Amino acid sequence: MPDSTVHHATFTLTRDLDATPERVWGAFAREDLKSRWFGANADAVIVERTFDFRPGGHERALAQWRNGMMTDFQCQYHDIVEGQHILYVYDMFVGGWKMSVSLATIQVEAKDGKTRLTITEQGAYFGEKGAMHAAGREQGTAGLLDALAASLND
Amino acid sequence: MPDSTVHHATFTLTRDLDATPERVWGAFAREDLKSRWFGANADAVIVERTFDFRPGGHERALAQWRNGMMTDFQCQYHDIVEGQHILYVYDMFVGGWKMSVSLATIQVEAKDGKTRLTITEQGAYFGEKGAMHAAGREQGTAGLLDALAASLND
Prior knowledge:
The structure is a homodimer of 154-residue chains.
Chain A: E1 6-17, H1 21-29, H2 31-34, E2 44-51, E3 58-65, E4 70-81, E5 85-94, E6 97-111, E7 114-126, H3 130-151
Antiparallel strand pairs in A: 1-7, 2-3, 3-4, 4-5, 5-6, 6-7
């Protein structure tokens, strides 16, 4: 192992959502709809937020958690095909420490009257706990998709 | 499959190089040493080149190939730990078409008096030929590492 450990991991999550593809797309493309499920929650408040949904545009969500922890999602969009896919790269910081760099692909498609959402994350996680953090990221992302699904009913 | 096909693929290549870790690191960190193996070759000339090796810095190599093809490597560095690892994300364009977005990790470590170089690329390749292009990228990267190894003898 190199002195500087980097753990590489990929996960894919799929959800069939009871909403139109346009509505699911909006949950990523529109700040007001994304804010219903991403960032703020019962345990965290957003301290700083930027949102520029276009190729090359940046997004940021700096959050303060109830236990005092700070997380900082710093994202850049690399590819957007309207209604079909979104690729972005994000650095994730926890307490000012860069935990990971990830390439995320969101794919949206009509499926049997519902909408299939697929997210693939190809990540590089720093440090000796990289494998644990990769597993946690997959779990956390699954939780975000639960929140996204719930937000479609609002 | 979504209408907008994205093929995800990861490859890892390792080389034990007969040079010091400092010299191998320089092959990525110094523009003059990188230019010996990356970009220009017997079949391509560099039309435009930028090189800003620091976290957040950009690199670009726009190349014209003997057969007329244009390739455009557009890179941003996301993490650099001196002498240990380099993470960068690059969009690759061929003939103006975005072929892929990749997260690359370079790791350098001393190993039995030589230097072990490991490159891991986690890529998303667009279009119906994505799997073919992923295989080609791995092959092309292996060729680049051959060129890097040869450049160390200069």
